[in-house]
Specification:
- The protein is of the alpha/beta class.
- It contains 12 helices and 14 strands.
- The strands form 4 sheets. It has a 7-stranded parallel beta sheet with strand order 3-2-1-4-5-6-10, sandwiched between helices. The protein has a 3-stranded mixed beta sheet with strand order 7-9-11. Strands 8-14 form a two-stranded parallel ribbon.
- Helix 4 runs parallel beside helix 5 (196-215) and helix 8 crosses helix 10.
- The radius of gyration is 21 Å and the shape is globular.
- 46% of the residues are buried.
- The structure holds nicotinamide-adenine-dinucleotide (NAD) and 2'deoxy-thymidine-5'-diphospho-alpha-D-glucose (DAU).
- Nicotinamide-adenine-dinucleotide (NAD) binds next to helix 1, helix 4, strand 5 and strand 7.
């Protein structure tokens, strides 16, 4: 086993959206670590997300399926892996409604395969991995599972007009921040997943905790809210809408656009993962969120305004009172379509435990984050063109035709 300051980390799903930010952060910040990115490269995996670090001496990419138990075990033995950050998953709710089997296979069986490989390898080591439940930092190895707030189900919207949230952070001092109910997801809530995606993630979380409780595996689970930022596949709301606005295509708003999500800039999630991997308590769960609830329709309007400004499409008109006002022509693209089946009404994360115990909070206010994000997609059109060529057109047809 390697010594603690010269770690070998296996990051799964590192070619995806969040994974690529985590890999980049770790490769740059810890030149003394070896970072192995294990990814199957499904439609969502893209090595172009990691172009800037692919030649770094402390980085290795391995194309592999997490369900390949023998392959993962061999890799762990060969590289003497002592830490795992597990992000590989099927991640899109709409796809899980069309094809739940793939979600069970990757998210449940894949996680189990990874757990069993880690257990087999770590048990064979001279330094036993079994630790006391009280041990915090100084353990030889660690299995960190990245999960989602969707496992908690949906919260009621008791205040559709919005109320002052109970949290104050740098991120929530933005003028748009409101909460839409009094309840929040806390770490002790019962799991109540509704979609095949969240059911599969919930199941994988249970397996991770079972490996701790049964075998003493040093595990950590975090449940995060909606991430946004560069390199997100344009099946998810924000990049899909930015791309459609650019091409003046309709913006398919599910239902009435009243559903609420909590949004976190992806680099803030990566920072939280770094902190928790190194300083989080084994066997604990931490919620990670942006203290930043938005109704879909409101966030969509902000995206349209931001893209219209960036592309110089804003029009100046004179109001009835003679004032000059800005208008955003692409508001006309908003198209209400059939709702997502089982669409969870409201997600709202309470991440005050993480703030209190480890001192983390989001660094960006949403207005800043969304501007950076829009700018990135508009400046990186070749990236977008590449991921929207080929199969993407067929996906779009299947998902949105006749909706
Ligand atoms: P993503 O879909 O962008 O990327 C997933 C990555 O996993 C891809 O690179 C893909 O190739 C890889 N992968 C898929 N199946 C694999 C397999 N069988 N073996 C190896 N690699 C495989 O996902 P994301 O949005 O970056 O999410 C990453 C993780 O974070 C997921 O576990 C997701 O549940 C969780 N999460 C996501 C969000 C979010 O807002 N995106 C929020 C909270 C939690
Ligand atoms: O909460 C964390 C989760 O956030 C992650 O676990 C998932 O991996 C991630 O995909 C995300 O799930 P959502 O379903 O919330 O994200 P999505 O971007 O698909 O949708 C955000 C909201 O926008 C949701 O209420 C559905 C709505 N929507 C989405 C799409 C793609 C639309 O109205 N129209 C659309 O075309």
């Amino acid at each position: 086993m390697t010594s603690f300051n010269k770690r070998v980390l296996l990051i799964t799903g590192g070619a995806g959206f969040i994974g690529s930010h985590v890999v980049r952060l770790f490769v740059n910040k810890y030149p003394e670590y070896k970072i192995i990115n294990l990814d199957k490269l499904t439609y969502a995996g893209n090595l172009a997300n990691l172009k800037d670090i692919e030649d770094k001496p402390n980085y290795r990419f391995v194309r592999m399926d997490i369900c390949d138990f023998e392959g993962v075990l061999k890799l762990m033995q060969e590289e003497q892996v002592d830490g795992i950050i597990h992000l590989a998953a099927e991640s899109h709710v709409d796809r899980s409604i069309k094809d739940p089997f793939t979600f069970a296979q990757t998210n449940v069986m894949g996680t189990l395969s990874l757990l069993q490989a880690a257990k087999t390898f770590w048990e064979s080591q001279p330094t036993p991995y079994v630790i006391s439940h009280e041990t915090t930092v100084n353990v030889p190895c660690r299995f960190y599972h990245i999960s989602t707030d969707e496992v908690y189900g949906a919260l009621e919207m008791t205040h559709p007009e919005g109320i002052e949230p109970p949290f104050t952070t740098k991120a929530s001092s933005g003028k748009h921040h409101l909460a839409y109910g009094e309840k929040f997801f806390t770490e002790d809530l019962k799991y109540q997943p509704h979609s095949p995606y969240s059911a599969a993630k919930a199941s994988s979380d249970h397996f991770v905790r079972a490996f701790h409780d049964t075998f003493g595996m040093p595990t950590i689970v975090t449940n995060c809210s909606n991430n946004y930022g560069p390199y997100q596949f344009p099946e998810k709301l924000i990049p899909l809408f930015i791309n459609n606005i650019r091409h003046r295509k309709p913006l398919p708003v599910y239902g009435k656009g009243e559903n609420v999500r909590d949004w976190l800039y992806v680099e803030d999630h990566a920072r939280a993962i770094d902190l928790i991997f190194h300083e989080g308590k084994v066997a604990e769960t931490y919620n990670i969120g942006g203290f930043n609830e938005w109704k879909n329709i409101d966030i969509i309007k902000v995206i349209i305004q931001t893209v219209n400004k960036a592309l110089g499409r804003v029009k100046l008109e004179t109001s009835e009172t003679g004032e000059t006002i800005e208008t955003y022509p692409d508001m006309d693209l908003i198209t209400y379509v059939t709702d997502r089946a089982g669409h969870d009404l409201r997600y709202a994360i309470d991440s005050s435990k993480l703030q209190r115990e480890l001192g983390w909070e989001p660094s960006l206010q949403f207005e800043e984050g969304i501007e950076k994000t829009v700018r990135w997609y508009l400046d990186n059109q070749p990236w977008m063109d590449n991921v929207t060529s080929g199969d993407y057109q067929k996906y779009y047809e299947d998902m949105y035709k006749g909706r």
